[in-house]
Structure formats: C-alpha cells, structure tokens
Amino acid sequence: MKINRLTSFAGTLCLIAVIARPAWPADQKFGADGQKFADSRQKGIDFLKTVQSSDGTWTSNTSSGVTALAVTALVQSGLPTSDPVVAKGLKALEKFVQKDGGIYHPNTSHKNYETCVAVVALKVANTDGRYDQVLAKADKFLRGTQWDEAEGIDKADVRYGGADYGPATKRPDLSNTQFLVEALKTMGAKDDDPNIQKALIFVSRCQNLESQYNQTPLAAKVNDGGFIYTAAGGGSSPAGKTAEGGLRSYGSMTYAGLKSMIYAGLTAKDPRVKAASEWIRKHYTVEENPGMGQQGLFYYFDTFAKTLTALKLDQFEDASGQKHDWRKELAGQLFHMQQPNGSWVNSKERWLEGDPSLATAYALMALKYCEPTSASQ
Fold first, then answer.
1. What predicted TM-score, i.e. pTM, was given to this entire model?
2. Model pLDDT for residues 246-296, shown as the tens digit of each residue
3. Each residue of 299-322: pLDDT tens digit?
4. What are the residues whose beta carbons fall under 8 Å from the beta carbon of 361, sequence distance 6 or more?
5. What span, in angstroms and rounded, lies between the C-alpha atoms of 144 and 146?
6. Which of 45, 108, 151, 369 has its CA 20 to 30 A from that of 324?
7. Structural domain boundaries of the chain?
8. Domain 2-368 CATH assignment equals 1.50.10.20
9. Which residues pair with 373 in a beta bridge?
10. Among 109, 121, 232, CA closest to 177
11. Quick check: 42 and 338 in contact, CB under 8 A?
12. How many Cα atoms within 13 Å fall on the side-chain side of residue 111?
C-alpha cells in the first residue's frame, strides 16, 4: 500500500510538472533558452514571495509603488490572482485607493507615479472585472494630473502635456509622462486619445532634436535624436551638460520617449521616430544604461524590452550593421546578474535600485518580453 501511494504521488508530481511547463513554440527562432528562462523566472518569483511583508506590501507600507511593480511582475510571470502572495498584494493595493480616484499613500508626494504603476497592476489582475470601477476613477484622476489648460497653460508652454510626480514637484518630466501614457494605454486609450496626444507634445520637447515639434532653447544644442529627463524648468538630464550648454541624451529616457511616441501612433516614417531609432542604433547595449553606466539599469532593462516589443522587432540592427536577438541578449544579461537567492539588485543604488524588491520586479517584467518566440508574423 505504501508503494502504491508513493507511486501515485510521484505520478501526480510528474503531471503537475507537465502542466506547469511553458508551451514554448516548436519553431523557436528568437529569445531566451526555455529552460534557463523558466528557472530564472521561478527563482525571481520565489524571492519576491519570501520578502513580502505581513501586510501584503513590499519595501514600504507608506508608498504603493514597489508593491504595485511586484504584483505586476508576479502576475505577468504567470501567477494567478488566487495565488496567496498575489492576493495579499492586491488587498494591500486596494487600501491605497483614495476618494479622488488616485491610488497612493495619503502622505505621498508621488501621487501620479504611484497611481500609474498601481493602475497597471490592477489592470493585469482584473480578469474578472473586480477593479472596473476603481480603474475608471483612476483614469479620470490621472487625466486630471496632466499639465494642460486646466492648469492655466497653453500648448506653447514647455510643461504642456507632461506629468510630474505629484503636487510637490511642479515640474513635469519624461519618466512620469511615460508612466502616465503607459497607464492610459493599459486601460484602453487609443493612439488619438486627447491626453495621449497632449503627452506627445511634451515628449517631443524632451527630444534632442530641433524640428517643428520642438523649438525649445535646448533643441538644437545636442540634436542627436536622444532624450533628456525634462525640458521644463530650464531642462534637466542626469547624464550632464555639454560644453555648449546642451543636455546629454541617455538610454532609459530615449527608450521611454520612443515608446511613448509609438503608443501615440507615430510610425517609423516620422522624423522623431527615425532620429530616436538612430540614437538607439548607435548606443545599443544590454550591459549598461547608455550615458548613465550602471545607474538606473533595471528601469532601463524594462523600458528597453517594452520599446523593442512595441517596435515589433525580432532582431535589432545596430549602427554597425550587426543584428541582435535582443530578447536572447537581454535574458542572458539578466541570467548573469541574478543573485543566488533569486533576486536582482543594483550596486549603484540611485533611484532606489539598491532595493532588491524593486530591481527584481523590474527584472521579471523585462524578462517577460524575452520569452522564446518564433518569428513575428
């Protein structure tokens, strides 16, 4: 009887393993090695499960940001909303929902950012419509945070169309604007949505490219097609200034800008897309955040993967003519950087990437786009 029970138990385990194995395409041509991908992702999932706080949050219970990113990463990695860790994380996020429709901690100065990433988390978990009303209110809230006529400014103002962290900063930036665009698109906004098109005006002015869309004083000083953090408030780029007073482009914002333009309906024929694509061709890498070294690397990985997916590219051709299976290369870099405990962490702690929960969430979200795949149709 004992032998039969053991045999039955072993058979059950085999069945579970077969069911759990991802169905990789038989004609795989691009992307990560299937087994390495599955192993790495599972280790990342296991790490996030072990570091969740008892109240369902990650890192902090006075900010919804990392919790939202962790929930998104876990659901996109294949965990159902019924998984105890995911369910607990969602309950934690629900407690951040405010009467004005935002999803943030009452004392935060990052209302827009926290709401944007929470919206994505709740949307990917909204398979049964449980968050329909919450998302509808959040959509209205986010549209109200965008800098436009409601703030008494018109299209000529360099702040127009942008989004900032929240009420404390009063200066829109490209990072928060790309989070806004992604949140609106996640909730179903079309390319021609008025708020998406307003964001495009701001995004275009953060590009180092003088054109009919960007006549700001900074536009022609670098003119390389890359993007900076913001053109508002006199302009800012953590990559620094040139001798001529221009602001240097850098990788994460260039991918963020290009992605936002694609989400706004621009095609490869648009001069802004052409210029940004050429900058990326010249600076293609999965080893650093171009212009910033290791700073902001995991944010860069996530934005890199989303942008190249939006471009519908299986191979990316750099400026030298070399073609890259970017999914395989990015996955390989992530495999290499993963810690023995399953986490990812950045030794350059700027922008909170020294927090393994944040870095691991970004890594898992980036890894999602590296799945083994056949050629695009």
1. 0.91
2. 999 999 999 999 999 999 999 999 999 999 999 999 999 999 999 999 999
3. 999 999 999 999 999 999 999 999
4. 48, 58, 66, 69, 70, 72, 73
5. 6
6. 45
7. 2-368
8. yes
9. 30
10. 232
11. no
12. 20
